[in-house]
Amino acid sequence: MAADAGFSVLTGNSVETRSVRAGDVIFREGAPANELFVIKSGHVRIQVGNKAIAELSADNIFGEMALIDSEPRSATAIAVTDVELVPISEKQFLFLVSQTPYFALKVMRTLAQRLRVMNKGFA
């Protein structure tokens, strides 16, 4: 499920990144959340329980739901390959949403696209 490209602007050379090795858990379902992630390189699998619901690649975001509704993580994120991530704190997220309407729209489009895919699974 590839989201519209468009988050690459957040992965420039001067941003702080976090490297995660293939097979490592980035976050677990039910854990508290204080950041979302933009994938700079590599692949990340999102799963609920033992069921994979998405595999994401560069320029995609994940972990945004918990910043929007302040609930614990709704899924587990695992590095499929070695990945380089750009963490976006809640403070940075709120700044981006308030100062960059296009960023907010991109996040909403990503959420809507993922919801449509999930709804098809229940049809």
List keywords for this structure.
4-stranded antiparallel β-sheet; 123 residues; 3 helices; disordered N terminus; alpha+beta
Question: What does the model show?
Answer:
The structure is a single chain. The chain has about 120 residues and is α+β, with helices and mostly antiparallel strands. The protein has a single domain, classed as Jelly Rolls (Sandwich), CATH 2.60.120. The protein has 3 helices and 8 strands. The strands form 2 sheets. The chain has a 4-stranded antiparallel sheet. It has a 4-stranded antiparallel sheet with strand order 2-7-4-5, with no helix packed on it. A hairpin with a 2-residue loop joins strand 4 and strand 5. The longest helix has 21 residues, at about 100-120. It is globular and about 35 Å long. The two termini are about 20 Å apart. Mean pLDDT is about 90; it is low at about 1-5. This is Cyclic nucleotide-binding domain-containing protein. It comes from Bradyrhizobium jicamae. It holds the Pfam family cNMP_binding. InterPro entries: cNMP-bd_CS, cNMP-bd_dom, cNMP-bd_dom_sf, Env_Response_Regulators, RmlC-like_jellyroll.
